[in-house]
Fold each of these.
Amino acid sequence: MKCIEITPPADIQTCIQLPSSKSICNRALIINALAGSTCRPENLSDCDDTRVMIEALTHMPETIDIMAAGTAMRFLTAYLSVTPGTHVLTGTERMRQRPIKILVDALRSLGAQIEYTENEGYPPLKITGKALERHSLCLPGNVSSQYISALLMIGPMLAHGLNLELEGEIISRPYINLTLKVMKDFGAKAEWTSDHTLQVAPQPYHPVPYYVESDWSAASYWYEIVALSKHEAVVTLPGLFAQSPQGDAKVAELFEQLGVCTQREGNSVTLKQTHTHTDRMEYNFVNQPDLAQTFVVTCAMLGIPFRFSGLQSLKIKETDRMAALIAEMRKLGYVLEESEGSVLSWNGTRCAPDESPAIDTYEDHRMAMAFAPAALCNSALRIRNPHVVSKSYPRFWEDLLTAGFRITQL
Ligand SMILES: O=C(O)C1=C[C@@H](OP(=O)(O)O)[C@@H](O)[C@H](O)C1
Ligand SMILES: C=C(OP(=O)(O)O)C(=O)O
């Protein structure tokens, strides 16, 4: 097993070119393919999740391995259902434990031909593409928004368009809005018709030149670094649009409570410390699940008790993120509590920290990236299997070196 040790710098003054958003890349790639475009969107990420999508759409092999990419698994399931040919869609061991029944049932109810090749309800899937005849369905909105995005994106290809009714609480709604935005950018007519219903017109996509914005979820680790720095810290992040369609752009507002202000100049933001923060933080992360790990680590390291709700989807992501956070924060001396399957809180309870803590990353890029900045509050911190960052941010460790962190391979 590989392990690195991170030693923090004193002052930080740096400019970091973030990777582009894998969420936007993977939507633009699917829609671009459905639009029959011969050009690729620009500024595509070189992260694993986007690489596997490009590979799949370019070569369309009989067996498509999307590794750990949730978006690729869900979006390609819908895409392959309307694309001629038969393909097996598979992924990592963890991907084969991430549920997909809701999406498969929904596509089957539209007429799709999909079989489970191993376990009912989970990848791998064998999909034969065909014209889907039906156009209306009802599905749960409280498990993963990626199922809904996947269905929406094929809506313009269906003879009568698509009407979706979502049952229950809708989680990750900004990601559905992001899907609608990218679809509209490519000429589709798709919108919310009420709080729980969506409609897509049978109006085909047009190929358009497309430029992908930097990743706001990746920006969150730089907010965390500025918040936790014991010395002067100024970080500039180019490529983040003023009116971002990414739900995780909320990070800028949320970090005001944790002592970081955001100055905007064109498509660039500069983060600085304000030296004031809240005494306690409460927030419902139902719309920004990917930010939860960043805020758990930041708040604890700043000694800010918190209660974070809306975390139910964390259990079915790259790992059970609730369990992983509880286990790894304990190594740093913080006792977190889980309740109701969706709430994680810290009321200030401490325990003896490990003498030289080594953080396990559970094949989860966000465990590595959310814990790395905690080095700023220790003289050094170890991270196991640091390569996991390649899922969304392959140059994360190089960027830490640019900012002045020292990284030693153990
Ligand atoms: O649509 C997307 O691009 C994503 C949606 C979210 O998943 P859920 O809808 O499963 O919460 C998010 O966690 C994931 O990283 C990316
Ligand atoms: C949950 C994530 O990704 P996905 O579901 O697309 O694998 C993530 O990037 O945090």
Amino acid sequence: MKDDFSIKGEVISALETVEDSAKNKNIIDAHMVEQVDVDSGVVDITLVVEQGRDRNERFALEDAIYDAVEAIAGVQEVKVKTTTPKAIEREQNADSSAGSKAASAAPSGGAKAPKQPSVPQAEPVQGVGKVIAVASGKGGVGKSTVAVNLALALKEKGHRVGLLDIDIYGPSLPTLLGIMDRPSVADRRIVPLQAHGLRIMSLGFLMEDDTPVIWRGPIVTGIIRQFLRDVDWSGLDYLVVDMPPGTGDAQLALAQTVPVDGAVVVTTPSELALIDAARGFEMFRTLNIDVLGVVENMSKFITPDGEEFFIFGEGSVEKEAERLNTELLASIPLDPAVRKGGDEGSPVVVSAPDSETSKAFLELAESVIERQPVEGGGDGDGKKKGLFSFLKG
Ligand SMILES: Nc1ncnc2c1ncn2[C@@H]1O[C@H](COP(=O)(O)OP(=O)(O)OP(=O)(O)O)[C@@H](O)[C@H]1O
């Protein structure tokens, strides 16, 4: 039988085929789907329609949703709840005032209590020692490449490592690691895929093709929560999370779902990338996530004769790191072996372990381990921790 997780992915794709003719957009792009839940094949969808919308148009939308979703194999039942933006706002206010009441024992200094977000408290991922986010302010700077090679370098250092790709704009782990399978389910938990000794989960495993998907906040939050709560990550020392570029829903969802132990911000030495990296850095500070430091990617090009070219200039990332009161954790050269390895599903730490580039990734792993050590120095720590948290839970 198909699992709820795969069904949810297909439901979201199916909803993208439902057009709202008044808006000339599909209902996902028109931000009309508030929530999608799947439980044992029963699909619950919350549709948001403006107050005063023509009844027949509303019915037509609901019918189109039933038709699209009921056609998905494995769907047992479809329930569509139609609501309005006002009703959602009222619900959220009710949630937040309940939250404020619960928190009223806390000293408020007479000030009005801040709105409580209607999300559960962040809870550690079961069985994982440390969660490390790899982020960038800007797309295309090599964030996923750094995430993959950092994970492999942590593994080289004797740790058990998982890699989670929540890049909603373009999940690249399936390509970078050469895996296209779908994860399976055992004991009602999703079993991550394996590659190069890492445990892997990617939004890409949910997508039918390479088309970029624009998912709105609640759906992004739901999927990320599912990735962290319903995937069997037990026994890991480190879970490396490949974030989407920028500062948006996914960053917030991650911070609200699990305590993130540290973030690594990837940038190239170009002026524009640095400005965006600084923005990303501030966002992590706002979210109270410890930024371990900055990784400079494509720092220089080394010719086969060993000559070095600093294409984007030299020293700018280090200066920016100083300005932000953080550290430069590693400088990764622009290396054709990195791109080739990425395209062929064989990352450079595996395909050219003795290269200068791989050494830079190993140094990066050492810096991360130094700043966020797992108890007992690795090799099984995550397993012990996982077991204990499992017993407690
Ligand atoms: N140090 C490097 N040397 C050579 N090529 C690199 C290097 N780092 C990344 N690349 C290449 O640059 C391209 C973009 O890298 P990657 O997908 O890791 O970037 P990204 O920041 O995750 O992008 P996105 O924002 O789209 O997720 C890939 O083809 C990758 O192989």
